Amino acid sequence: MRTLPEFPLTVFYDGSCRVCSTEMFVYMRKDHGGRLEFVDISDPAFNPAEFGISLADFMFQMHAIDRNGTVFRGVAAFQKIWQAFPGEPWFRFLAVLIDFPLVRPLARLAYRIFARVRKYLPKKKAVCRIGRRPHR
Questions:
Q1: Is the dihedral of CA 46, 49, 54, 58 positive or negative?
Q2: What was the pLDDT predicted at 126?
Q3: Which residue in 31, 56, 77, 103 has the most C-beta neighbors within 10 A?
Q4: Are 76 and 63 in contact (CB under 8 A)?
Q5: Angle formed at CA 78 by CA 58 and CA 12, multiple of 5 degrees
Q6: In this predicted structure, what is the pLDDT of residue 132?
Q7: 40 within 8 A of 10, measured Cβ to Cβ
Q8: What does the pLDDT read at residue 118?
Q9: Can you give the residue ranges of every domain in the chain?
Q10: Pair 94, 75: CB distance under 8 Å
C-alpha cells in the first residue's frame, strides 16, 4: 500500500453532482476521526485560486490535498480518502486493491471515462432556502 497522506486530507467535491455528493456524504457520515475535511467546489464562495488549481481542473477530476500540500487527483485521491478509514475493512481493501498492477490502470481508465461524462449526469436541485416549495 502506498504511504498514508498527512492528515487531515481536504477533499474537494462537486456538491451539485448527484453522484459526487452522494459518495461524499457516505464518507462524511462515517467516523473518519477528523482525518477528512470536505470542500464543495460548487459553492459560489469557493475560491480555487487559494489552492493554485483552476476551477476547470477541480471540476474535471476529484482532488484531495493533505496537510503538507501534496495534491492527489482522480483515483489517487480516492485511495487517500479510503486510507482515512483504517477500521473499515471495505475501504482498507479498496485502498490496497488499487495498487495491484492491473487494477490501477483499469481504475484510471474507468475514472477518466466517468470524469468525461459526469457533466452530463443529472444535477442536484437547488435547496429550498425557506423550507417549502413555491406554489404554482
A1: negative
A2: 55
A3: 77
A4: no
A5: 30
A6: 41
A7: no
A8: 86
A9: 9-120
A10: no
